[in-house]
């Protein structure tokens, strides 16, 4: 039986909706493109016309969740500012440290998948990084540029884009040290560690001590930034 004809957007959405419960049940490694295609009642060849590989499907799902997150939506609606920059850094640190200690099970899986990808072909990490750069990096970049413009931060030799990724990778590496049941380093408790790494990063991207104090950078309460990285993204 031929699958019903759908528009390109509707077909992509159908594939994503079919893949989501499979990833949730079997994980990334245990989900195949054949299984996704069978669940969507289409051929693998048709699936590949819309997504080049399994990593692209997974990353698209994560990006959709990230875009739909209420906390991130509110942050994206805020004008670029020093305060917004601080919220992003605090959000990234909070998310990754929660993922590392296992209190965010889904985040823990994403972090492990990304780290594994770095050690393999890098395909999943690359696709996910592209999504993080589209969704989260612009808020960081615009806010840092605004902080520089108003004198809250000093311009350095590194581009704001690179500073975003330096921030991301610093926090990811820190989180990775906390993944084993016996952490590789004896860091302080999570709340104190989060504050310290935020201070380190904010100074590193150029924020002045006066700006950090004025914006209460280390005492900001922050709402869920749970699905961003990578992202992640957070």
Helical percentage? 55-70%
- Poorly predicted residue ranges: 220-234
| Largest sheet composition | none
Task: State the end-to-end distance.
Answer: 42 Å
Q: Class by helix and strand content?
A: mainly alpha
Radius of gyration from the alpha-carbon trace, in angstroms: 19 Å
Topology:
Layout: H1 8-26, H2 33-40, H3 44-50, H4 54-68, H5 70-77, H6 82-101, H7 105-119, H8 123-135, H9 137-149, H10 160-176, H11 190-204, H12 209-214
What can you tell me about this protein's structure?
The radius of gyration is 19 Å and the shape is globular. It has helices spanning 8-26, 33-40, 44-50, 54-68, 70-77, 82-101, 105-119, 123-135, 137-149, 160-176, 190-204, 209-214. It is built from twelve helices and no strands. The longest helix has 20 residues, at 82-101. The model is unreliable at 220-234 (pLDDT under 50).
What features would you highlight for this structure?
mainly alpha; disordered C terminus; 67% helix; 234 residues; Arc Repressor Mutant, subunit A
Give a brief description.
It is built from 12 helices and no strands.
């Amino acid at each position: 039986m031929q699958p019903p004809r759908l528009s390109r957007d509707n077909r992509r959405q159908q594939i994503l909706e079919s893949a989501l419960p499979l990833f949730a049940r079997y994980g990334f490694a245990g989900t195949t493109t054949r299984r996704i295609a069978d669940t969507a009642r289409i051929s693998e060849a048709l699936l590949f016309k819309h997504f080049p590989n399994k990593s692209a499907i997974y990353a698209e799902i994560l990006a959709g969740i990230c875009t739909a997150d209420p906390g991130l939506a509110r942050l994206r609606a805020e004008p670029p500012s020093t305060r917004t920059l601080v919220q992003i850094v605090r959000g990234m640190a909070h998310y990754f440290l929660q993922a590392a200690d296992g209190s965010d099970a889904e985040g823990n899986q994403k972090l492990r998948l990304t780290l594994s990808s770095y050690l393999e072909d890098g395909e999943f990490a690359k696709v996910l990084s592209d999504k993080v750069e589209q969704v989260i990096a612009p808020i960081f970049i615009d806010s840092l540029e605004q902080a520089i413009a108003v004198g809250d931060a000093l311009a350095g030799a590194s581009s704001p884009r690179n500073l975003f990724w330096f921030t991301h990778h610093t926090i990811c590496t820190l989180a990775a040290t906390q993944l084993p049941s016996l952490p590789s380093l004896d860091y302080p408790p999570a709340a104190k560690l989060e504050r310290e790494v935020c201070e380190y990063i904010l100074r590193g991207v150029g924020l002045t001590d006066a700006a950090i104090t004025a914006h209460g950078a280390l005492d900001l309460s922050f709402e869920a930034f749970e699905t961003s990285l990578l992202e992640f993204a957070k």
